[in-house]
Amino acid sequence: MISWLLIFSGVLLAGVLAVNMLRPRFKKVVVSAARFFKSLPPAKEVKSRLRLSNPARSRPLYLQLLMLALLVVALLLYRSRMSGLQRDGVALWILIDTSASMDTRLDSGGSRFDLAIEKARLSIASAEEAAEGLELRIRVSAFDLEVRDIVNTQSATAALDALESLKVRPLGTDLGEVNNKIAMVEEQNESDEPDDLDYRFTHMHVISDQSFRPQSINYVRVIWDNVGSPANNQGILDVQPSGRDPITALIREMSVTCEYYGERVGATVSVTSPTGEKLRTSKLTWKRNRRATVTFPVADSGFYRVTLSASSEYDDRYSWDNRAAFLLSDNDTHHVNAFWGMNEKSWLKSIRWNDVARSKQADVNLVPLRNSAFHYSSTPTVLVGKPIQGKVKDHLPISIFENHPLVRNLDFDAFDKLRMHGIPHSKLPEGFQSVLADSKKRVWVAFRVDPPAVYLPRLPKITANPGPDDAVSQLLFVNAARWLLSSKAQAMEPLYQLTDLENQEPKGNRIALHPGEGDTSSPNPTSSGSIDDMKQTSLGTEKIPVWPGVLACCALVFLFERGMASYGSPKWR
Question: What is the CA radius of gyration of the chain?
Fold first, then answer.
């Protein structure tokens, strides 16, 4: 910036000097013209030539250089300000809560937000009265998840008009944003000469249904109005999976948790499937913690809608939490189809997989190792060996494929003590790689990537008192199934999302169940300060920009120089 100013000043200086050097200088003398005619040369064509002369140290030159200097100074000081007179008045900042809970209806018939607007009007009137004709500043902001400015004006009428544009948004409340604004004003007012601040806020008026949180405030008067009061509300608190596939962890069952405040009466929850069919309508049984939970199975992918309906005689004051929705993708609800080629099917029933008749319909095959027809099936396959009773006699050290998913969470010391029988690696189909084996290449667990397959020594038994070998077999089977069905693992996308600053309206699986917004109990609503305490105080010293004064001086010099050039003596020409 400075370099450009220097270049600009140099160009102007060169221009002033050039004009001064090119200007012809004459001296007025009265003589007889006859003497000039005697010495006239023969007439000939005269060509114009540029003639330069040394710059004359004239008064206009000095004034033009002074104007140039003043222009440069004005550019350099365009951000500078000087302190003026001390100002008194009222500078009020009103922050109004527009979060979802402000929609709670009051006994009077209006809402908490309507009461907040009325208090804001009274605050503006009180500030105007306290100013008594002196300077008045009013700033109106709204807050929920953010603080956003609505108007910053010196007119009480403009501030009142701005209140009409405010409305409740179905968002949560972040009081941290408000506390940050209070701390910012406190820091600015504490400074003798705060930077970039035309005036000091003398009062801050926060209107919310949340209680005041004490802070160390000394340099600004904070008025905190809590417009909350106890009110009835029954609402949905949360929607979460409550039952999952024991192997793939895919969702099988959902639960809806509801909560009430105020009067305790009956209510029902209805769930609508993606096809529009009502899955369940359940009456809520409230517990001592004021909550009730309803569970329901899910099988199809798509949008599920949950609705809470209070009894007809119940006066529900808050409605944003009466509806919820969630989305289940195909991966969330996929039921595993298994071609179960084993005679023993008790384990299949315990994990609740679908038993299909053909391998082409299956997500996974589970067959004995001796069934060679499935050794190279394109469908992921679990090959199960024939269990051999008793323990192996020639116990040898175990060779482990470290960190492989098939042996995740396996206690190798406990497995070693079982001394289970393995099979020679040569009996496995081509392409298998050992995960657990001994030095004689007797294999307990092996895998193949293409086509995908896993070898296990046995299936777990369903007994009342499972032994250590059953626990190991169960863990190995779960690891094998998860590894083979990794493409059908639980989806990472959330089932629902909360409304936010970019998506403020509930739509689809975006809902308005923000924590704490449905809590209409307001057990101890506390406020702080009163608008009746507003009074005049110092707004700080007036900040006067320097550059207009410098520019005015430059204009005066210009007018003086031009005036003297037109009407002054020859010395000014």
Answer: 43
